[in-house]
C-alpha cells in the first residue's frame, strides 16, 4: 500500500491512501480516522514532537471513553457461526447473539471479557488497551519508523497512561 498527497490543478491537495489500514475491513472507524489524520499531519510537515502530542491526545481521549463510539468492529461471517472451529472475536460475538444457523455481518467491541456484540453488551468495560495495542500503535509505529522514531512513547504524551500500566 501507499499514502501520498494528490495535488490538483487548482492547487488543492488531498490525502490518498491505498491498500493500508484505512481500507482494511478488520479495523475500527477510530483506526481509519487516526491513520488518515496522522498521515495528513506527516505530509503537512509536522515534526515528531507534534505527532507525539497528537497520539498522546488520542490515547487520553480513548482512555476517558470519549472515542467509544468509534471502536466497533464489523465483520462478515460467510458460514454459520457454529461452523467455525476457531472462536475468533467475530464468531464469539455472533455466538453470544445466539447465531447458530445464521451468517451475516456482526458488530462487536472488545471488552475486558473479550469480544461482545454491540446489540448485547454485558457490564464489562471496553478494553482500551486492546485498541491502542492492536489498532493505533501499529499505524503509528509504521509512521514513526520512517521518521527514525519509536511510537510506543507517543501514546503516553510524555507520561505513562494507565493504558500502559
Helices and strands, with pairings:
Blueprint: E1 2-7, E2 13-18, H1 29-43, H2 48-63, E3 73-77, H3 89-96, E4 104-111, E5 114-117, H4 128-146
Antiparallel strand pairs: 1-2, 3-4, 4-5
Helix pairs in contact: 1-2, 1-4, 2-4
Walk me through the structure:
By secondary structure, the protein is α+β, with helices and mostly antiparallel strands. The chain has four helices and five strands. The strands form two sheets. It has a three-stranded antiparallel β-sheet. A hairpin with a 2-residue loop joins strand 4 and strand 5. Helix 1 (29-43) runs antiparallel to helix 2, helix 1 packs parallel to helix 4 and helix 2 (48-63) runs antiparallel to helix 4 (128-146). It is globular and about 55 Å long. The relative contact order is 0.15. Residues 157-165 have low confidence and may be disordered.
Helix content: 25-40%
Query: How far is it from the N-terminal to the C-terminal residue, by CA?
Result: 33 Å
> Largest sheet, described in full?
3 strands, antiparallel
Whole-angstrom Rg? 18 Å
Give a count of the beta strands, DSSP E runs of length 2 or more: 5
Strand portion, in percent?
A: 15-25%
SSE order, one letter for each helix or strand = EEHHEHEEH
- Runs in which pLDDT lies below 50 for 5 or more consecutive residues are 157-165
| Net shape | globular
Class from helix and strand fractions: alpha+beta
Characteristics of this structure?
alpha+beta, three-stranded antiparallel beta sheet, disordered C terminus, 35% helix
Briefly characterize the structure.
About 35% of the residues lie in helices and about 20% in strands.
Amino acid at each position: 500500500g501507499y499514502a501520498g498527497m494528490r495535488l490538483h490543478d487548482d492547487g488543492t491537495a488531498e490525502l490518498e491512501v491505498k491498500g493500508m489500514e484505512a481500507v482494511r475491513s478488520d479495523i475500527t472507524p477510530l483506526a481509519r480516522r487516526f491513520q488518515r489524520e496522522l498521515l495528513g499531519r506527516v505530509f503537512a510537515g509536522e515534526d515528531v514532537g507534534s505527532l507525539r502530542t497528537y497520539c498522546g491526545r488520542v490515547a487520553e481521549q480513548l482512555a476517558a471513553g470519549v472515542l467509544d463510539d468509534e471502536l466497533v468492529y464489523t465483520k462478515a461471517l460467510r458460514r454459520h457461526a457454529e461452523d467455525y472451529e476457531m472462536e475468533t472475536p467475530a464468531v464469539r460475538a455472533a455466538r453470544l447473539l445466539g447465531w447458530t444457523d445464521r451468517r451475516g455481518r456482526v458488530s462487536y467491541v472488545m471488552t475486558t471479557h473479550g469480544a461482545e456484540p454491540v446489540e448485547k453488551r454485558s457490564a464489562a468495560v471496553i478494553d482500551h488497551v486492546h485498541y491502542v495495542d492492536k489498532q493505533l500503535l501499529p499505524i503509528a509505529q509504521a509512521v514513526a519508523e520512517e521518521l527514525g522514531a519509536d511510537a510506543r512513547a507517543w501514546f503516553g504524551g510524555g507520561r505513562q497512561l494507565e493504558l500502559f500500566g
